[in-house]
Amino acid sequence: MTWEEMKKFTWEEAGNFTWQDLQLSANELYEKVKNDNTPMSAGTVEKLQELCKELPEEVPLPKNKYSMKDWLNMINTILAIVKATSDMAEKCKPIAAKILEIIIDTYHSLS
User: Fold this and answer.
1) CB 13 within 8 A of CB 44
2) Model pTM?
């Protein structure tokens, strides 16, 4: 169990679990409690059930084969980001120069 999962239980409820129990995933722990008929308050069992419901049934796997079109789309997106960043930098240069000029002029006038 993770710390985030454990924070859902009170100290009294957490006292029902052994260190070995806490090394199990929420699903494994729920199965163990259910199969072993471990005496536990209904509230604790409900919290454990809720943790199991929060876990996704199946983790989606990344695509392991990309078509030429997928690769070209990814490259196109990367190039568009690079170009947009470059264009923004060019547009900001005059503004940054003006701000810097104002700061320097203000500094000199205060000196």
Assistant:
1) yes
2) 0.44
